[in-house]
Amino acid sequence: MEKLKLLLLAFFLGFSISSWAQKTEISGVVLDEKSMPLPAANVLESGTSNNIVTDFDGKFKVTVSNRNATLIISFIGFDEQRVKLDGSKTNYTIKLISSSTNLEQVVVMGYGKGSRKNLTTSVASIKGDQLNRGVISDVGQMLQGKVSGLNVSTSGDPTRQASVVLRGASTLNGSQGPFYVVDGIPGVDISVIASEDIVTIDVLKDAAATAIYGNRASNGVIMVTTKKGSKDRTQITYSNYFGVENVSNQLNMMNADQLRAFTTKNNLNFTPENDKGANTDWQKAILRGSGAQSSSHNLSLSGGAEHGNYFASITALNKEGVLLGSDFSRIIARLNVEQFAFDDNLKIGINVTNSNSKYTNVPQRNTALQQSVNHLPVSPIRNADGSFFENFVQTSYFNPVALIEHGVDDTKTNNFVGSLTAEVKLPYGFSYNLNLSYQQLNSLHGEFYDSYYQQYNSASFYNNPDPPQVKQLVNFGVNGSAVRNSYQNSNTIIESFLNWDKTFGNHKIKAVIGYSWQEDVLGDGFQATATNFPVDNVSYNNLALSNYTSVNGYVVNFGDSKAYQKRRLISQFARLNYNYKDKYLLQGTIRRDGGSVFGANNQWGYFPSVGGAWRIDKEGFMKDQRVFNDLKLRVSYGQTGNSSGFNAYTSQFISGSLGTFYYNGQQVGAYGPNQAANPDLKWEKTATKNIGLDFTILKGRVSGSVDVYDKKTTDMIFNYAVNPVLVPVGTIVANGGNMSNRGIEGSLNINAIKTRNFSWSTTLNGSTNKNVITKLKNPLFVGGDSIRRVQPDGGGQTGSTLQIFKEGKPLGQFFTLQYAGKNANGVSQYVAKDGSLTTNPAIGTDYHYAGSAQPKFLLGWDNNFTYKKFDLNIFFRGVFGNKIFNATRADLFRPSTAMTTNILVDAQNESPNDLNAYKYSTRFIEDGSYLRLDNLTLGYDFGKVGKYIKKIRVYETINNLFVITKYSGIDPEVEQGGTAPGVDSNNFYPKTRTFLFGLNVIF
């Protein structure tokens, strides 16, 4: 019996020892540098999927499979830490180091990476969780207000991307947006990336950072890094939100009672055709009654094994527009796989993304917007019999609701991006990379205007294009008209580069040398138009049912004769980084680009850069100081180019149709030159000087940077008017202009408060930029040193322009009549060219310079608060010192026509006898400054819930809660990109206020 007891005791002791060898409960606490607990930090047993998150006090308990296991502890904003269990301890105190204070944050550059502490260039980095949140479908809006020097403007239209301008416009071409590189693939359409899949965005600002991309980098480069799987854990995440948007502001138009009182007071009478006794709010009539609904769902799965990892996600986004007939939806699927071989010396990566989008546009959008404010409130939407009210006797007077309901405007796109990458580690610090990528964008567009639109042909239907385009007369054929086109763009890139990373004592060298080959095929497809359909429900789906040949004079529109383009780019590039004692840093780059889009005599360009930095805090004289944790001075210079904004055949001679001429009793087609050749056409070049200072003080609690830059563009490409005797076409695309941008940028990060239950961190960024066209001449140019432009063509405004390209003035310089109040007869008067006052000013001759659309200062202010399990984000954004030409207000300031079109309430004290009241002039130039509470988000983190849910966070977000501004239009955030910034011209899609509820779950 005693032997049996001893055997049983030995068995249980052995079982216990075996159990200890296999499973052990480990507890501990995770703290930051100041010994404050970090709730929701992730604790993972390496090589397994066994992980938990810390509780509110930063504490955790986890049962590991082995007493000598390794724990991986991670938390957003802190460096990941690995803790090797020693087999005897069961309780650990783990401190994480903030990545913002140790300066080891990795920054993505062209063809490589580097630590922020050793940067010699100006680069701003934004983490995925710091991006703007809300009903957002493009990266530009995610970055709005987050990066100093980045000017982003958006409208409320869900089908339009934001305009993005970095450090001021660098060209007179319409293409001013930055160049995007996604996971090393250059030129990716940013719409293929879901915001939830973004890890970091690095904005390369100065030419020393961007020159490695040569002729595509003048407008800056934005590097996007997306999520990858981890071999240490398997994770499923799900995020969604549901939102409602409503118009945040509308124009203050007269209602029926106000307008009737005004017309009675001034002895004006409505025509019986218009006055039906109604009281219609036409702006409200074209809006969705219950607001616009939006939703987003993102599901991702990630994980890996010892020699590989994977990440897969799918995102579904739907966003209704607040205007009737507008809608946007997108589905994005993404797969990333990395596999290692040969002792991890070879890494093969496959990245495939497909984005499928549908844009439902408001038919004749800008005209519908214009008609919604022009229409008289005494006119009803529908007649008593249910048909739409119309008055076709009155020219350019159309029912905006009818325009929307009787038209269709759809675009479907499918965007595919695929890449194969290989990286081989070689002896002596060398590594070789080969990147192959292919992008294909297919678009299918259709418009249909049913037989109802035929009635508009008799009433002078003009379109209402965005500036600087000029309106044109539109004819809708007979019995319905349709347009259908299908185009495909493809892009093939092969890039090969060799890296060398070597340390020799106190000397560190990082170098890269490579080759890039790219071929683009654009506009591979066709277009056709048709009219005279048997029924309206055919829409644009079957043009063969039309009978256009029976319509006298109808000509099928086969689209742009220059739609198909093929271009090739071949490049060699190199970069050298030298580091001495982590104290003195030097970088040099060179890129040689050859492009088929330029003249035969100038197809190659060279783009060099050099940058240096001095880490002052590493010097001996800084050893005993206690103020600076980091202090670095940066200086750089570089050249970049621009190869966008013009087509592949810009430099070549092209002949085509020149219309018809009358000969021998018939109209005969004419054919001849319509584009002049320019074999000397060459790159635009932008040279940037940059001086920067980076600092961290107070033991990492405060950090920031200041940059001063001087950016000069030479040989700007523009379509110049020339003497027809020299160039029969009358225009030529040539180099000739120069432009300058000078500015200061600053950013400040402060961890203001950090206690057990409460924290507050704030980030402030601001920038100023001065833009000037310093030269606008070409030997052939017949226009002197200026070009008047931007002509909205409002009623009675024929020939009146709003802006001017002028040497010594900025892009967006307003040039118009100078309003001088009213004379003794109550008639508006203006300052003539000679300084006298006149009531009959001459268009163009009596014009004066009247401010600029360029903002003087941009501001972003981000605040993050936490209290126990609650988190609160408050983000303000401001634009200051810019002017807006409120052409919309001018066109609605016509008291003399109040009996035929509506007017603003502000015009009620105007006299109908003042026929000058509405003239485009300084009277309608307003201060466009504003401060907006852009985002307010309140969240609650439940932490771990149950066995399988590691984290649940719910949040409520309000976008555009309020805006402080003196601007009298719908919203001061008018278009800031392109070549006609700051013009509000009857085309403003209303901004919205959004309320959304969101959920984030980690399994």
Automatic annotation (TrEMBL):
Residues 413-961 form the TonB-dependent receptor-like beta-barrel domain. Keywords: Cell outer membrane, Membrane, Signal, TonB box, Transmembrane, Transmembrane beta strand, Transport. It is found in: Cell outer membrane. It is a multi-pass membrane protein. InterPro entries: Beta-barrel_TonB, Beta-barrel_TonB_sf, CarboxyPept-like_regulatory, Plug_dom, Plug_dom_sf, TonB-dep_OMP_SusC/RagA, TonB-dep_OMP_SusC/RagA_CS, TonB-dep_rcpt-like. Its main location: membrane. The keyword Membrane applies. Gene3D superfamilies: Carboxypeptidase-like, regulatory domain (2.60.40.1120), TonB-dependent receptor, beta-barrel domain (2.40.170.20), TonB-dependent receptor, plug domain (2.170.130.10). Residues 1-21 form the signal peptide. Residues 117-221 form the TonB-dependent receptor plug domain. GO terms for cellular component: cell outer membrane. NCBIfam families: OMP_RagA_SusC, SusC_RagA_signa. Belongs to the TonB-dependent receptor family. This is SusC/RagA family TonB-linked outer membrane protein.
